[in-house]
Structure formats: C-alpha cells, structure tokens
C-alpha cells in the first residue's frame, strides 16, 4: 500500500514524521509538514546523521579544481520562434528544464505545440505529453494552427512512472509536460496537483532531463493570486521560469523570463494571439499605448525597460472622492509602492489624498516591477487630482525615493531615443538621465526632486 510508505517532512526544518501533523514537533512551525517519498534509509531521520553515515552507502567521488574543468558552451537549438528564443536566451538548451506558468487560456499549450512542431520540422525528435487534453483535442489545435500535417508525437498520460518510462524509451530531444499539476506518482497517496505530488513529479522529471540530456518543458498553472500553484520550490528546481502575462481580453501576450540559468532574466518575448496561433511581435514598443485622440487627465506614458528593449506603457490613475477608509488599488503595478508614493506626495509636495480613493493601472495587462515607473505614476495621479491632462506627446520615467529625490533609471538614453522615434515630444526625467547630445524632436526636462517635477508639469 502506498499509504504506509509515506513520510511527512517539515519544509521549515527538515524533521520527519510518519503521519501528518499540524505543528512540526521539532521547530514548532504550523502547516509546514508535506508528504514526501519515503527516505532511502528507513528509521534514519535527516536530522540525525552520523559523521560517516554516507561512507557505507556509496564510494566517494573525485573532486576537481575548477581550472581543470573544460568549460563547454551549452548546446542550444533555436526554434525559429524568435520571440520565444529570445526569452530562452537563444534557444532550447539540451538537458534543461523550463517551467512555463500563466493563467488558464492565455496560450501556454498553443505556444508549446508551435514550438514542438517547429523543432520536429527541423528534424529534432520531440514528445508532447498531454495530461489535460485528449489526443483529438491537441490534433484539433494543430489544425487550427495551420499544422494539420504535424508529426509531433503525442502521449496522453498522467501517471509519472509511465511517463518517465515512455520518455526514456522515445528519447526525444525536447519533451513538453502539459501540465505538471495533472501528474501523479504511485509513490505518494496525495491527489494530483497537491504540493507533494507536484514537487515529486517535477523532481523526477528534472533528474531524467539531467541524466539523459532531454530538454523538458513543464507547464504550470497559476492560482488566482498569480502564484504558480503548488510549491514555489518548483522555481528553485528548474533552470528557467517563464511567465505569461497579458490581458486575456487583448490579443497581446508577454512571456517573461523571471529566472534563467542560460540567459538573461527579465527578458521578454511579445506575441499576438491570432486566429492561427501566437505570432511574434518584433517591434513591440508601442503596443501598450491606448490611442486617445485627445490628451486625457489621469494618463501618463512611461518608458519602461523590459529585458533588452524599451517599452512605452500608458499609466492611468483615477483619484476620486473616497470615504473614511479610502481604497488604493493597482493593476499591473505594486500596491505597496503606490502607498509609499502617496506618502511621498503628501510629505514632499503637500498633496493630500488620504480622503480619496486612488486607482492605478498599467494599460494592456503588462506587469511593471521597476521603480523607474514612480515618476510617471505620480504624474498620472497629479493629473487626475487636478483633472488636467498632461501635454500631448509627454513621457516620464525615474525612481522616486522616500526623501522626495528623483533617482536615475538604467539606460535612460535608450528610453528617450525610443520615445522620440515613436513621436513623443516632451520628457521629464531624472537629472542624471539628461542626454549629453540633444535628441531630435524631443524636449527633455531634467528634475532632481519630486516637488520640482510636479510643479514643472503644472506649468507645461
Ligand atoms: P491555450 O493554449 O489552450 O491556453 P492554456 O494552455 O494557457 O490554457 O489557449 C487557448 C486560447 O487561445 C483559447 O481561448 C483560444 C485561443 N486561440 C486562438 O485565439 N487562436 C489559436 O490559433 C488557438 C490555437 C487558440
Ligand atoms: Mg493548456
């Protein structure tokens, strides 16, 4: 029976227990015990290892100085889907494990089927393991993608041991597991999708990838809170973590690398969902701007830097009469940061908003984490408060500190040049980002403090 083989391990201190407990007996943390596969040595807890414990289990392996190890370049296969190759750091790396997360319906299965089809057509053996959809459903998607002749092999299976055996036998160069939450291992009694199952299945697949050189792509679902369902530990186990972002109501999709052992993090790939699948958008800088015919209050365009490319994103703010407990809501921007910026606005610019609801939004479902958005957020808030639009063709970027200082953003020149290229004419930027040579068509105002910046735009 699987049940009596189970073991529960505290994710906090590593202590084990034969049954589930609410509170860890060793470190007294609550709800930290998760089911794990049985320990290799029965009766021996991880906490009580003697000094020569491992000597009896295996022969010691030789160790080598770094200088004697040949540094080889990783073998990478570009898929030809340029935007995806860009996020992966140039292509699919042999033996790597990539986790792709995102909301249901955002396009994970579509993108991965397109990827495998491309690779298969290049002569690389692939395998698509579908735990969610039947073979017929996947075939239907392939037809929709205009790939009715696709030769990508499909396996519909959810039991881990069978999948491992099939992958090992098929020896593909790249395998997709759609999704990790549907898999279950016979070794554990918990249900598919539980923390223990997800972790166990991912660990086995990772081991297989490393042992055989097969690249494995795991699809992971995201919970309503935007976290990958299951443990965050998945992110630590794999080589790269990619997230799909974007508003399912708009056609644009961003794929962002939040971890990449073989490339740059925060690199993004931009796609448009079309009737025939995801198409790369090679020049995406203007897609997150809404097309107002007239300048409107509460809107400020930010030039943000996503990976290696500048991106222009409209930041919208609405400040409206609240009650005794006003709301602060943000979509696509950090809420804690908003609270901080409102405090800075009050203290250093004398603008109070404690009796007002404040809403901010980054247009198009894009998520912005960089502090360089601060200045544009405050400009949009002031504009909404005064019900006065910023001038047409206006952009801003820069971080705002608690002392009210405006700090420079990385690669300011590049941001300004991109804005000028898209026809923007006025910019307010941190003093250190002032370009040395003028940029044709763009008037740049350098600022050092937030009150100075806000006063300046009131006069524009
Ligand atoms: P899907 O890849 O199934 O999403 P996920 O695996 O992330 O859950 O995406 C499906 C959505 O994309 C669905 O709403 C239909 C739409 N779609 C298109 O618009 N065009 C297409 O060519 C395909 C295949 C799907
Ligand atoms: Mg899917």
UniProtKB/TrEMBL annotation:
GO cellular component: cytosol
Entry-linked CDD domains: RadA_SMS_N (cd01121)
Gene Ontology MF terms in the entry: ATP binding; ATP-dependent DNA damage sensor activity; ATP-dependent peptidase activity; damaged DNA binding; serine-type endopeptidase activity; zinc ion binding
Domain of life: Bacteria
A Pfam family the protein falls into: Zn_ribbon_LapB
UniProt family annotation: Belongs to the RecA family. RadA subfamily.
Protein name: DNA repair protein RadA
Species per Swiss-Prot/TrEMBL record: Corticibacter populi
């Amino acid at each position: 029976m699987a049940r009596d083989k189970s073991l529960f391990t505290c994710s906090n201190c590593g202590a084990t227990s034969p049954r589930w407990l609410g509170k860890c007996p060793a470190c007294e943390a609550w709800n930290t015990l998760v089911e794990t596969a049985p320990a290799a040595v029965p009766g021996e807890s991880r906490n009580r290892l003697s000094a020569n414990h491992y000597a009896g289990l295996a022969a010691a392996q030789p160790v080598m100085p770094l200088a004697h190890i040949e540094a080889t370049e990783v073998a990478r296969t570009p898929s030809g889907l340029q935007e995806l190759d860009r996020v992966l750091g140039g292509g699919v790396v042999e033996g790597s494990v990539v986790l792709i997360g995102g909301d249901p319906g955002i396009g994970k299965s579509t993108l991965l089927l397109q990827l495998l089809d491309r690779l298969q057509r290049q002569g690389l053996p692939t395998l698509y393991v579908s735990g969610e959809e039947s073979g017929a459903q996947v075939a239907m998607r392939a037809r929709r993608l205009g790939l009715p002749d696709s030769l990508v092999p499909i396996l519909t299976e959810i039991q881990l041991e069978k999948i491992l055996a099939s992958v090992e036998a098929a020896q593909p160069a790249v395998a997709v597991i759609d999704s990790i939450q549907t898999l279950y291992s016979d070794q554990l009694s918990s249900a598919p999708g539980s923390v223990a199952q997800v972790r166990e299945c991912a660990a086995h697949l990772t081991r297989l990838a490393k042992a055989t050189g097969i690249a494995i792509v795991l699809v992971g679902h995201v919970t309503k809170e935007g976290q990958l369902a299951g443990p965050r530990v998945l992110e630590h186990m794999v080589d790269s973590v990619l997230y799909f972002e974007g508003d399912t109501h708009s056609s644009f999709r961003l794929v962002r690398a939040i971890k990449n052992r073989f490339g740059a993090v925060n690199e993004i790939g931009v796609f448009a969902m079309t009737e025939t699948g995801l198409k790369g958008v090679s020049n995406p800088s203007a897609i997150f701007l809404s097309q107002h015919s007239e300048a409107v209050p509460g809107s400020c365009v930010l030039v943000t830097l996503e990976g290696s490319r500048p991106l222009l994103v409209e930041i919208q703010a609405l400040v409206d009469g609240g009650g005794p407990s006003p709301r602060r809501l943000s979509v696509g921007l950090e809420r804690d940061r908003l609270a901080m910026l409102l405090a800075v606005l009050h203290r250093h610019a004398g603008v109070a908003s404690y009796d007002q609801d404040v809403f901010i939004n980054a247009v198009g479902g894009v998520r912005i984490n960089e502090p360089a958005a601060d200045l544009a957020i405050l400009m949009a808030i002031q504009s909404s408060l005064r019900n006065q639009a910023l001038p047409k063709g206006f952009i801003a970027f820069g971080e705002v500190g608690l002392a009210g200082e405006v700090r420079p953003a990385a690669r300011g020149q590049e941001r300004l040049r991109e804005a000028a290229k898209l026809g923007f004419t006025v910019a307010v930027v941190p003093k250190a980002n002032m370009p040395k040579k003028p940029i044709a068509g763009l008037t740049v105002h350098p600022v050092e403090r937030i009150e100075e910046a806000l006063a300046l735009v009131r006069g524009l």
